[in-house]
């Protein structure tokens, strides 16, 4: 209620600031490169494979990184390869700049069934900037989760948390504060949804400041987390984010020794 009252009181200023941000914002392209690939062993030699589907917005699409290899998808696929993880990760990316949750739902429904073990959902920022009502947001996320499970076979769905918009350099105050509070509201809804479903995971985005480290413990330069537009992750931030997602996936998968049901399902359709 307090946020709604503040929004009404600040509406003229927030609208003016929003228009100015859209006018001056640097438009970065989506990361170049294939949106489907594989890391690790060849398919015929893999004993412990994983199929990974990523769906989402401009950050899922890799805006702020030169190539998909340096963006979220490539970093996540590599982070899931290892002796205690998987020996092959086949991945696919369905994402575009400007996508809100409803757009991601449309993409997931339009995609031909792509059997996967894990789906990662990256949405929310455009719902914040587009003022999607929280109730509608929750309904759309529910439909997205159902689609990822029933159309694409995901056993685990990871809901990536909304970023700390109250720290985005591009945004002036009080717009930065207001959008940050809205992002916290939507992120809290994701956390509640995941808490009620053992096959759902919510990952709060790791802090990306001078105290941050990658999941391997490497120090991160102070100026590394944000891309040149002050709104999207940099390649270093994508690496941090992917490491945290990989850790969450590995915690969620109950067994990594029996092979991948999605791989078997995919093979049966060939």
Low-confidence stretches: 209-223
Number of strands: 6
Whole-number radius of gyration? 18 Å
Report the sheet-strand fraction.
Answer: 5-15%
Mean pLDDT: 86
How many domains make up the 3D coordinates?
1
CATH domain class: Alpha Beta
Class from helix and strand fractions: alpha/beta
Give the neighbour order of strands across the main sheet.
1-3-2-4-5-6
Gross geometry: globular
Largest sheet: 6 strands, mixed
State the end-to-end CA separation: 54 Å
- What pattern of helices and strands is seen along the backbone? HEEHEHEHHEHEHH
- Looking at this structure, what is the CATH superfamily? SGNH hydrolase
Give the number of helices: 8
CATH architecture: 3-Layer(aba) Sandwich
Helix fraction bin: 40-55%
Descriptive tags:
Rossmann fold; 6-stranded mixed beta sheet; 8 helices; 270 residues
What can you tell me about this protein's structure?
The chain has one domain (46-255): Rossmann fold, CATH 3.40.50. The chain has 8 helices and 6 strands. The protein has helices at 2-24, 72-79, 101-110, 125-129, 134-150, 175-195, 235-252, 261-268; strands spanning 36-40, 49-56, 88-95, 118-122, 156-160, 200-203. Strands 1-3-2-4-5-6 form a 6-stranded mixed sheet, with helices on both faces. Strand 2 (49-56), helix 2 (72-79) and strand 3 (88-95) form a beta-alpha-beta unit.
């Amino acid at each position: 209620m307090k946020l709604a009252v503040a929004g009404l009181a600040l509406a003229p200023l927030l609208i003016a600031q929003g228009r100015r941000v859209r006018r001056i914002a640097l438009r970065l392209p989506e990361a170049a490169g294939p949106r489907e690939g594989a890391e690790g062993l060849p398919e015929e030699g893999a004993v412990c494979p994983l199929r990974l589907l990523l769906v989402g917005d401009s950050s899922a699409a890799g805006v702020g990184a030169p190539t998909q290899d340096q963006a979220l998808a490539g970093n996540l696929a590599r982070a899931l390869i290892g002796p205690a993880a998987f020996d092959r990760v086949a991945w696919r990316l369905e994402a575009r700049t400007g996508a809100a949750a409803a757009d991601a739902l449309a993409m997931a429904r339009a995609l031909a069934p792509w059997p996967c073990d894990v789906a990662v959902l990256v949405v929310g920022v455009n719902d914040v900037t587009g003022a999607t009502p929280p109730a509608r947001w929750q309904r759309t996320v529910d439909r997205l989760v159902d689609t990822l499970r029933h159309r694409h076979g995901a056993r685990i769905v990871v809901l990536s948390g909304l970023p700390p918009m109250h720290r985005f350099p591009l945004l002036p105050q009080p717009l930065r504060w207001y959008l940050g509070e809205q992002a916290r509201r939507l992120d809290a809804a994701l956390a509640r949804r995941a808490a009620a479903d053992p096959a759902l995971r919510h990952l709060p985005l790791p802090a990306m400041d001078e105290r941050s480290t990658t999941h391997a413990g490497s120090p991160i330069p102070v100026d590394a987390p944000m891309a040149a537009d002050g709104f999207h992750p940099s390649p270093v931030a994508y690496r941090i984010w992917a490491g945290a997602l990989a850790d969450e996936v590995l915690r969620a998968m109950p067994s990594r020794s029996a092979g991948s049901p999605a791989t078997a399902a995919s093979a049966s359709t060939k």
